[in-house]
Write the structure tokens for this entry.
Amino acid sequence: MNFSGARPDGTSPFRCDDGRPLAAAFFGQSSFATKVIVSESNLVSVPADVPLEILGPLGCGLQTGAGAVFNVLKPQPGASLVVVGCGAVGMAAIMAARASGAEPIIAVDTNAERLALAGELGATHGLSGRDPAQIVAAVRDIAGHGGAEYSVECVGRPDTVRLAVECLRMRGTCAMTGAASGQSDIAIPAQTLLYGRSIRGVIQGDSNPRTFIPHLIALWRRGLFPFERLIRFYDFTDINRAMADAASGAAIKPVLRMPQ
């Protein structure tokens, strides 16, 4: 239903000028509108005293990254965890890993500024570079025991998925959250999986939003999930600049303010 562009019965709430149905309702509500019609099951009640403009990102990227840790991997305190890709999803995974007591938490990205922020949000180590062998060797040195117990892949490219798996020790688990185009095949050497490693696909953090989003807000109130540090606000008229900043990496989570 999130990706169909239609209502549950297959119809669309919008039509083109010539009367043809227009795909809409992406993620159950679509975007860039001041008013929307949604199903009751898509509504999440949030505290009235929390600024609504910061809560939108919880519904997608932040819920995905945090849920990959809290709902899927469920690391015990002291478990080693690698996050490949420090965008909004990866940063949410890092904050969730810290709240879970995981250690070490290793952030992997090619952007030095994002690695620095990842360190402030909970990563104990940051690794930069484009040589997978060097990154894997560094993870094994930091985590010991042949690699990390868990990894979260947040880019969605075949090479980063393979990297996230190869950073694991025997019987380690990789939670794959990256979407990218969704059209690429992922090649994993058979020997890599023979060590008992596994890949777990994750959708929206495998979350129940009605309970999980309030949980993230509660963690935010306690200072354990400071996701507001990822947000950069833009006026709606600056939508093109927001898109460009997201594409270039200048902004981690752009949020548009609609005209009042």
Q: What stands out?
A: The longest strand covers residues 168-176. The two ends are 30 Å apart (CA to CA). The helical segments are 61-73, 88-100, 112-121, 132-143, 158-166, 190-194, 209-221, 239-248.
